[in-house]
Known about the structure:
Elements: E1 5-8, H1 14-24, E2 35-41, E3 44-54, E4 57-65, H2 74-81, H3 83-86, E5 91-96, H4 100-105, E6 108-110, H5 118-129, E7 134-139
Parallel strand pairs: 4-5
Antiparallel strand pairs: 1-2, 2-3, 3-4, 5-7, 6-7
Amino acid sequence: MSQVHYQPLNLIRLPIVNKLYKDFYPAGKAKRDEILWVGESPQGIVCCVRFKSIGELQLLTGMLVKPDFRGQKMATHLLQHAMPQIKQKPCYCFAFKELEMLYQRAGFFTLHPQQLPHDLQQRFERYCNSGKKLIPMQYNAQP
Length: 143
């Protein structure tokens, strides 16, 4: 496996990430007001995740690993490298059921939807009402 380097994305490269989303995760689209972390190999960007600020909180969203690179712990490494961002302020995510364990290993714990802050609760309900089967989770910042 090629060496992968993980780092925050320079926003000038946003079109490259959006091409990746268009190709492999059409529901996702990076925006200029988000913080993005990427994993990059000599073949280009192979994984990415976005952090959307919502008031005093942040929502980890849009985790994507290119299909050819799945099963190689790319998402785990990306989350480990993005920990400085995750720990900046309360961090939540809406995980697909099959990824719950991935996020738990990264320090997130599962919530009941009613435990979400109001702004996130409404967003979560909208996503679920659109047919997505998601689990709300929050990062547990260890002292």
